[in-house]
Amino acid sequence: MKVRIVLLSFLFALFCSSKLDGQNLNNALRQGNNAYKERYYSDAIQHYKDALKADSTSTKAKFALADALYQKKQDSLAMNYYKEVLQDSLSREQQAEVFHNIGNIQMRAKDYKKAFESYKQSLILNPSDDDTRYNLVLAQKLMPKDKQQNQQNQKQDKQQEQKDKKQDKQDKKQDKKKDNPQKQEPPKDNQQKPKQDKQQEQDKSQKKEEKDLNKQQLEQLLDSYKTSDEKTRQKMQKVQVYLKNKDKQKAKKKW
Q1: Among 232, 209, 211, which residue's Cα sits nearest to residue 221?
Q2: CA distances from 53 to 41, 44, 245 (A)
Q3: How far is the C-alpha of 214 from the C-alpha of 238, rounded, in Å?
Q4: Which pTM was predicted?
Q5: What is the pLDDT of residues 142-191, one digit of tens each?
Q6: Measured between alpha carbons, how far apart are the two ends of the chain, in Å?
Q7: For 172, what's the count of Cα atoms within 13 Å in the CB-facing half-sphere?
Q8: Which residue among 17, 152, 227, 229 sits deepest, i.e. has the most Cβ atoms within 10 Å of its Cβ?
Q9: CA Rg, the chain, in Å?
């Protein structure tokens, strides 16, 4: 009989304790919700923590605490609580709300790809949520900017790599020229030399002929000049003019 009395006492105490914990949980949740509505997020966080002390398995307390932490921009802690909530048994709508809020954290971190996936999962669970649909479109619009930026960076890296390779080739060519200097004897000069020699020989022979002719002409003209031939004197003057002009031409070449 004594054992039975002790057992009944223990069960009664446990019932009262659980009832008290339930009251503490509800009171803490109610106070936290009131503070949250008034945007006293720090107070709300403390009340939700008190609620979890009363019942550490309370899905409502964990979800509410995650929301309050998100409002205080404590995103890493909020993300941990949202992920923990997903392990609990939730309805499809509740799961959709959790994924929506996770997407909000990822959007704030500018991780648009992950945010897009979270919003998409939320819409799969609750296709009628217009807010989630709007956020999904927004994340999708922001995603291409990241892709374009990455593509542009890759393109710049490739261009720089090509420039470096080209410069490296040029440097190697210059190094080879320095190590193996070649005597530059262009074939054009060798081919032009015989032509120049021929031209010089022709000029020399022409000069000799002119000298010989000049001597003969001068002798003949001098003989004719002695006979006082008027025509011959005119020819002699022409020859002198020719010789003077010829000297002038040579001077121009020297210049």
Answers
A1: 232
A2: 18, 14, 125
A3: 12
A4: 0.52
A5: 986 555 666 666 777 778 778 777 777 776 677 666 666 555 555 554 44
A6: 146
A7: 6
A8: 229
A9: 55
